[in-house]
Amino acid sequence: MTPALPELERIDLPPAGPRGADSLMVLLAGAYDDPRCFVDLDLPAHCRGAGFDAALCLLRTDLAAVAEGRMVGALHQQVIAPARAAGIRRLVLGGISIGAMTALQHQDAYPDSADELLLLAPYPGNREITGTIQASGGVRAWQPATLPDDAGELRSWRALQRIAARQSPVWLGFGSDDRFAEAHRMMASALPPTRVCTLPGGHEWAVWCRLWQCWLAAREAR
User: Fold this and answer.
1) Is the pTM of this model over 0.90?
2) pLDDT > 90: what percent of the chain?
């Protein structure tokens, strides 16, 4: 029997105006963070201030569901597919840490289901996984075999590889002192430099908030 999908904890905020009526940003929080964190840190207000008027769907990343391979299905069935059916034409999918990894896993399972990816300090998996990719010559040179359904961390790397090859819109940000910075730099090597931002700091909200504002500024400049 297929395990039931979890009911995702979410905060939905309407678009700020008519320009954002057919646009949606889905943002997955990092481990153990409540989606209320995004609101408390004024990230929605930053969006509006930068002229990004899309509706927002802020989600808790259910760690048990991620480990069991059920998070991606829940994300698609409860958020992404209904949004498209409701007429959303522009969908940005993003996340922080394991939330960013989940966004990549979703793109592996449902290619091109998002129009743009925002990846802030993605969790890259354990050292065995990152070591294997590094030993292969990096993201572009790595040749993943057929991956089982529970190979979630490797699936996120495969998604990044495919996105880079197609030159699909993706923006990667991380702190230079992040504990996963070495893996992040390997991810960055597969992307255009204009789609990567590195700021001083570690794996922490202070850095992610500044990266968020850099993404908004870069987006506004395009």
Assistant:
1) yes
2) 75
